[in-house]
Amino acid sequence: MQARGSNASVLAQLAGTGLAGRSLQTVAHLSRQWWVRLLLIVLSAALNGRSLWAVYQDTGLLNAIGIDYKLYYLMARAFWSDDPGNAYHPSTWVPYLAALRPYYAHADSDPAPPGLVLYPPLFPWAFRPFLDLSPHVGFFLWTALNIAAAAYLTWRVAQRFPRSQQFWIALLLWNSLALWSALVSGQIQVLLACAFAESYLALRAGHDARAGFWLGWLLVKPQYGVLLGLVLVWKRRWRVVVGVVGVGLLLLGSSLLVAGLPALIAFMTTAQRYVDFSGTLDPYVAPQLMLNWRALVLYGLRTLGDEPRLWLTLVLSLGTTLGALALWRGPWCPTEPNFPAKMTVLMLATILTAYHSHSYGPLLLLMPLADLLVEWRPAWLTRLVIVAAAVGPMLMITVVSFNNMARGTLLFTALLLACYGCLLVEFWRRPERGAAPVAMREAA
Predict the structure, then answer these.
(1) How far, rounded to the nearest angstrom, does the alpha carbon of residue 372 sit from its chain's CA centroid?
(2) Facing residues of 104 across strands?
(3) How confident is the prediction for the chain on average, in pLDDT?
(4) What is the DSSP string of 90-106?
(5) What are the residue ranges spanned by the domains of the chain?
(6) Which of 126, 135, 385, 399 is most buried, by CB atoms within 10 Å?
(7) CA separation for the pair 441, 109 (Å, rounded)
(8) Given 3-state DSSP classes, what are the helix, strand and coil percentages for the chain, each rounded to the nearest 5?
(9) What residues in the chain have per-residue pLDDT under 50?
(10) What is the CA angle 252-258-262, rounded to 5?
């Protein structure tokens, strides 16, 4: 693995002589000034705060802001009722909505009916402490926990970069749609992203059993681990697989212990609500706001029926999957500079092909993407697309209006697809099948 500081002199190398060189040197100098960094922090906080305040004025709390926390709260309330299986029957959640209405912007508003949360029974059982708090206090505490996890994830990712770049990496991350959508909605995705980051780092270090343990927690949202699971079986990484299976058995066994067999069966048999392609069975599924082929097909072919659109989505997803899996031919070498490229493309394909994939999903990309930028050094066009995906969708929402959420996620999806394509083409065009440039290997 290359030295961490090998990118530190990139601007100096690019600067050279002449007007362009002096301009780049000026930019590099300004980027190190504390007042410039403080100004950017204040500006980003103002833009994001303005957008968040507009949403709060329009919808209140635990309606749009905290929408996923609301579902967790309702699910846990139902779980701790007379029958834990009620956690998977949203029609039984209606009586608990009364406690949330005071937090809406309009107390007489009629929100969408409760939607299903397909997490194992262990999750609503463990959510019990939050039920002892007022709904808004519980949400703030849950958000504080997620902010702490996001800070940890930012620190872990920034460590992969030279010190001079760490501030800018953190600034990009904290102004990304992926992180903001997870925090504002109250999603569990930040915690899962931390687990995946640790799994990825363990894989690179050769600690397969540890990698399997951390990766196993993605079984809470198994759609994000399907393609990586195929690769691990293909490459016979059995210690990783055993670790994942062990965590899966832990989740199932503990769920059976705390909820009983009927609740566990209810959990396993209610996934059909997610199968509906257009999302009409459950308004909270919102496939039009997803980052996948399903959303693109829904947006581009609105007049077709669900069945032909579903088949087209499956064909496009299959092609994307095969393109990502083709990169993994050859030996398993997690220490090579091309490993981050393989993993990044694989996780991009996972997000684009997963049937249920929302805007917070790309948080799983952060750690392999960091190593890709530092070690593999993609071409300028690929780097431009990556930066655009990090800041563009959120800027569209914060600068214009939160009402552009659908357009923002559509732009996000297009940029992720462009990133996937750029990396795939670049990987195969490199003479050593995706190895780092010669200069980078010599600096290692």
Answers:
(1) 17
(2) 60
(3) 86
(4) GGG-GGGGGGTGGGBSS
(5) 34-443
(6) 385
(7) 61
(8) 75, 0, 25
(9) 1-17, 20, 438-444
(10) 75
